């Protein structure tokens, strides 16, 4: 009697485990598809991120670097040639990443 009950419990545990595994795989696939839809696209020299041109971003005194931007492109767009001097936390001008916050003194507010 105890072996039948144990066998049933093991079968139920196996089914629950299988269901959880399939659910996890489905969630991973959905997340991967969602991330691939958010990817940025290059059109000529412009980068399109989430349906908006990055070059259309406003040059404020506090600027968050976007995907595909460099200090040179930000300097050209905003008219501030002294970005590195105003941002001591930027040690290497080539090591700029999306999300980096920098201070600007823009001469062009709109690109």
How is the topology of this model organized?
Blueprint: H1 2-37, E1 41-43, E2 46-49, E3 52-53, E4 62-64, H2 71-78, H3 83-86, E5 101-103
Antiparallel strand pairs: 1-2, 2-3, 4-5
Order of helices and strands: HEEEEHHE
**Count of β-strands:** 5
Determine Rg (CA atoms, Å): 25 Å
Side-by-side strand order of the widest sheet: 1-2-3
**Unreliable stretches covering 5 or more consecutive residues:** none
Helix amount: 40-55%
CATH superfamily of the largest domain: LysM domain
What structural category do the secondary elements indicate?
alpha+beta
CATH hierarchy class name of the largest domain: Alpha Beta
- How many DSSP H or I helices? 3
Gross morphology is: rod-shaped
The CA-CA distance between the termini, in Å, is: 79 Å
Q: Based on the coordinates given, report the CATH architecture of the largest domain.
A: Roll
Domain count: 2
Q: What is the mean predicted local confidence, pLDDT? A: 79
List the defining traits of the structure above.
two-stranded antiparallel sheet, 3-stranded antiparallel β-sheet, alpha+beta, single chain, membrane, LysM, Membrane-bound Lytic Murein Transglycosylase D, Chain A, 5 strands, 2 domains, transmembrane, 111 residues
């Amino acid at each position: 009697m105890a072996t039948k009950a144990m066998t049933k419990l093991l079968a139920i545990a196996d089914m629950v485990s299988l269901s959880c595994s399939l659910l996890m795989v489905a969630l991973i696939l959905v997340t991967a598809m969602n991330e691939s839809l958010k990817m940025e696209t290059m059109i000529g020299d412009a980068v399109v991120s989430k349906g908006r041109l990055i070059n259309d971003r406003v040059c404020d005194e506090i600027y968050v670097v976007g995907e595909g931007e460099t200090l040179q492109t930000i300097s050209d767009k905003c008219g501030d040639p002294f970005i590195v001097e105003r941002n001591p936390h930027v040690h290497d001008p080539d090591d700029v990443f999306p999300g980096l916050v920098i201070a600007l003194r823009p001469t062009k507010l709109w690109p």
